């Protein structure tokens, strides 16, 4: 379990965090294929039925993408584990959705659909603000190993960088170039998803403590990172 949560769901510096969130012009926007690709891949990598990318707004947590629970746009801030998870300094926050584990939120929705496992890594932007989470969610509680947590945190960093890249195209008013960038990223993610399917077929789930497996996955992370960095430099 992660360390105890703070006393309040709304931190003193929340206005500053929200200002950063709004700078990225992504709150309550339509679905974009690249983010759906990320959540589908996350669910594969961590063998969970649900994965999502959330953005924690003033009163509502928007789901930019959801795999495994489609059709849910988000939750009130007081009902989403993501709104509590962004308060932690730890790279990855886990919960079993029990009130005694996190008294800051009302887990009624999660419990009603049988959720018992949440692991999320913050979408942390260059100024340090945590604007949302990449989360993997399941119906059986489990603990992530240190290597699992490192892999989830690194994947969240790639999502954060993709959000940074996206806003550069938005500000430049270049939607067609953003579409091309998404297509290039999607091509890389499709290859990564194929690798994840293969690794999952060999065993029941991907074991990041297996050095050979971890190297294969991290190589796919690196390939995606290279695409992001090249695109970032083009938009600098």
Gist of the model:
With 236 residues, the chain is α+β, with helices and mostly antiparallel strands. The protein has helices at 14-23, 33-45, 81-85, 108-112, 146-172, 175-202, 211-235, and strands at 50-56, 60-67, 74-76, 92-95, 117-124, 130-138.
Description:
By secondary structure, the protein is of the alpha+beta class. The chain has a single domain, classed as GAF domain (Beta-Lactamase), CATH 3.30.450. The chain is 48% helix and 17% strand. A 6-stranded antiparallel beta sheet has the order 3-2-1-6-5-4. Helix 2 (33-45) runs parallel beside helix 6 and helix 6 (175-202) packs antiparallel against helix 7 (211-235). It is globular and about 45 Å long. The model has no long low-confidence stretch (mean pLDDT 92).
Indicate the radius of gyration in whole angstroms.
Answer: 17 Å
Task: List how many beta strands DSSP finds.
Answer: 6
Strand order of the largest sheet: 3-2-1-6-5-4
What is the CATH superfamily classification?
Answer: GAF domain
CATH architecture field: 2-Layer Sandwich
Query: Which class do the helix and strand fractions yield?
Result: alpha+beta
Helix content: 40-55%
Number of helices: 7
Kindly state the mean pLDDT as a whole number? 92
The CA-CA distance between the termini, in Å, is 40 Å
By CATH, the topology is: Beta-Lactamase
Enumerate the spans where pLDDT stays under 50 for 5 or more consecutive residues. none
Number of domains: 1
Name the CATH class: Alpha Beta
